[in-house]
Write a structure and sequence with these properties.
One of its GO terms (molecular function) is L-amino acid transmembrane transporter activity. Belongs to the amino acid-polyamine-organocation (APC) superfamily. L-type amino acid transporter (LAT) (TC 2.A.3.8) family. InterPro entries: AA/rel_permease1, AminoAcid_Transporter. It is a multi-pass membrane protein. This is Y+L amino acid transporter 2. The chain is mainly α. The protein has one domain: Up-down Bundle (Amino acid/polyamine transporter I), CATH 1.20.1740.10. A two-stranded antiparallel ribbon has the order 1-2. Helix 7 crosses helix 8, helix 7 runs antiparallel to helix 16 and helix 8 packs antiparallel against helix 15. The chain is globular.
Amino acid sequence: MSIKKNKLLASGKETLRPNSDIKLKKELGLLDGVAIIVGIIIGAGIFVSPKGVLKSSGSIGLGLIVWVLSGLLSMIGALCYAELGTMIPKSGGDYAYINEAFGPLPAFLYLWVALLVLVPTGNAITALTFAQYILQPAWPTCEPPYEAVRLLAAVIICLLTVINCYNVKWATRVQDIFTGTKILALVIIVIAGMWVLASGKTENFKNPMSNTNPEPGFIALAFYSGLFSYSGWNYLNFVTEELKEPYKNLPRAIWISMPLVTIIYVLTNIAYFVVLTRDELLASDAVAVTFGDKLLGVMSWIMPFFVACSTFGALNGAIFASSRLFFVGARQGHLPKAIALINIDRFTPVPSLVFLCFITLVLLIIKDVYVLINYLSFVEALFTTLSVSGLLWLRCKRPDAERPIKVNIIFPIIFFIICLFLVTLPFYVSPWEVGIGLVLIISGIPMYLIFIYWKDKPLWLIRISDSFNLVCAKMFLCVLEDGKRNH
């Protein structure tokens, strides 16, 4: 047994002392940063259901405009987060920024809904999508049995958790490879569509604005669908502390990733519109598969394979980044201390990864986990609005603070106004979902008062907490990182 392990096991208290040698390492370069952003943004959405934008906008022309503007808006948001990420160079993304700007209660409420709904639900649905497309060839005439889909989803979640626990470089190599794979898939779609377009098939574009729905509510819903497909642009901010030269590589990764994703998305949608009619696209639940069936003939099987690869890479990136969110929350004292522990050999936040895996597996037990997605958009948009309002507040509160990246004030103002519109609109369009979302957020207040705000806890509760932390430390061979960050 190594000297470090002997030291760890020699004393129970030793496991819960900060260790200056054990901390998350800066192992992510610029390519890894780009792979995380692109790999998480490009999940199943662009392959499976671009019809959401078309259905709400009504026309091909307006739909393409929405895709372009959604990309530009996401770019503005990412640049605002670049300022936040370099001014507050801590991992945790929105949690760290909300905590810095508005204090512990709003930050805890974000952590609470991220823990219960946002992160594990997104991961569970991504894993189920992966399993669905992997198993579909075995059931060519019907849907695969849900139990088989759920079992495979659970296996892949556990596998990726093990990879992320074992080695950061392994996780980033997986991310790099599968990001390349999904870009290759979209390039194939674009080339095939352009080939058909060059051959003279232009009838779908003769009246591009035909059937346009001009009502503001439907246009907003179209933007919701478009922005949902770009979601993930802020995930690199979750791992800022592991990024080499974050002041340089964070904005560079954003400048590379966001235009790349926007161009790919727009060209992919043009390819879809060239090959598929408006009615065919609206009738399809998996647009890329329908595209492949119509155009690729005997090679059409590659589209379900590429969808599976895309979801696999997106799930890996989400597990890697979001586990750091819970790690930072625990380090701040907003979750059990055990989740802030780092493995002494691998320098990975193993308890946080295992904890996230467990919560995600629990959600897989829910028969209709997809129903939770109805509550995600509003809650996520609300906290994104809070984060960007934090940027504006910090400009007033700390005008002289060091800002290695400082965007023009017009960008956060534009982003804040649009986010505010996207937050208020659902109150009229889908009040039930908004109500449930607000209940989820408010339910975190008593948890905060009991476990965070209440300082004079009874001795038995403190002993239970210490025992749990100690068991996790010994089980996973972990210690707290350098105490200098625990403030």
